[in-house]
Amino acid sequence: MSNAFIIDGKAFAAQLRQRVAAAVESFIALTARKPGLAVVLVGEDPASQVYVGSKKKATVEAGMNSFEHRLPASVSQDELIALVETLNADAAVDGILVQLPLPPHMDDKAVIAAIDPGKDVDGFHVVNAGRLAVGEEAFVPCTPLGCLMLLKDHMGDLSGKNAVVIGRSNIVGKPMAQLLLAENCTVTIAHSRTQDLPDVVRRADIVVAAVGRAEMVTGDWLKPGAVVIDVGINRLEPEAGQSKGRLVGDVAFDDALRHAGAITPVPGGVGPMTIACLLRNTLVAAHRRAGVAAPEGI
Ligand SMILES: NC(=O)C1=CN([C@@H]2O[C@H](COP(=O)(O)OP(=O)(O)OC[C@H]3O[C@@H](n4cnc5c(N)ncnc54)[C@H](OP(=O)(O)O)[C@@H]3O)[C@@H](O)[C@H]2O)C=CC1
Ligand SMILES: Nc1nc(=O)c2c([nH]1)NC[C@@H]1CN(c3ccc(C(=O)N[C@@H](CCC(=O)O)C(=O)O)cc3)C=[N+]21
């Protein structure tokens, strides 16, 4: 089999960000204010600091206000919730993102529950998860939304396709499965207790890997021609003489290339789409709060 098509998430994300930036200009002309995204980072986790930095840069580049709140890891859950409530009440804030994971003394669920569902641009609040599950308009988590955009762009109609989602987290696997189901796929959700995972994956026309295990999915697991979306972000140990290890996905990329029909790379695949979809959700939140129609097809 010839080499798979490489789905360029970075390029798709750049185009989406341009559409968002154009829509931001129209929003400002209409309402005389900028959409605003508040990002809350608790603690000093270096990977989280990098993500928050790139979110801020992308937000400002799209013409939106970025409000960054960095709190020490020692902050209490009540103090964090008090900050979230201040942001809920702040008219300049359209979207609120509390960077996960939170320090161990905090309960993610309680903090997410404090976010106004209308400002929950991560789509993590139970109200948004419930709306997605029953097919009502919802804020959809950015990573699965970005994966779905790439799939539809590459494949067109997804009706009747066999889709296997590996991973069942509330932020990636479960909402990804809901989105694929809404597109009329036949969806299987695999996880750490799944038996014969390679055989399950071999039946899939679409594979979404969201596990967090470096290069777990190998080429021989794939049905020839399958479309593979690799959500995993795993940092390998540095090689001799290097300070940083390589970033790899949950799929053994070079091996999968020889079996898949198409595949997203890591980096440059799903990651940039997550950030672009965060801007997209913030734009939509701003329109809803202002009571004006959001542009079509964003
Ligand atoms: N590109 C991006 O924008 C983003 C990337 N990520 C990355 O995606 C990956 C997944 O993230 P997230 O969903 O938050 O991770 P979680 O750790 O919350 O979930 C991992 C899932 O994988 C399952 N799993 C673990 N081991 C196996 C195994 N051996 N076989 C089958 N399933 C297994 C777990 O099963 P069980 O439920 O049974 O424990 C769980 O459902 C990570 O690498 C993360 O860094 C995450 C968010 C955004
Ligand atoms: N409340 C919350 N919302 C999130 O959306 C959220 C979160 N918490 N916690 C952490 C995860 C992870 N995540 C990523 C975003 C962008 C890239 C990304 O842009 N990756 C680049 C590479 C980046 C690099 O080089 O390190 C790429 O794949 O090309 C990756 C991962 C969002 N997350």
Automatic annotation (TrEMBL):
Domain of life the protein comes from: Bacteria
Enzyme Commission code: 1.5.1.5, 3.5.4.9
Transmembrane helix recorded as keyword: no
Domain Tetrahydrofolate dehydrogenase/cyclohydrolase NAD(P)-binding positions: 141-289
Provenance organism: Sphingorhabdus wooponensis
Job of this protein: Catalyzes the oxidation of 5,10-methylenetetrahydrofolate to 5,10-methenyltetrahydrofolate and then the hydrolysis of 5,10-methenyltetrahydrofolate to 10-formyltetrahydrofolate.
GO biological process terms, semicolon-separated: L-histidine biosynthetic process; methionine biosynthetic process; purine nucleotide biosynthetic process; tetrahydrofolate interconversion
Name of protein: Bifunctional protein FolD
Pathway note: One-carbon metabolism; tetrahydrofolate interconversion
Binding site for NADP(+): 167-169, 233
Boundaries of every Tetrahydrofolate dehydrogenase/cyclohydrolase catalytic domain copy: 7-122
The keyword Oxidoreductase is annotated on this UniProt entry: yes
Signal peptide (UniProt feature, chain positions): none
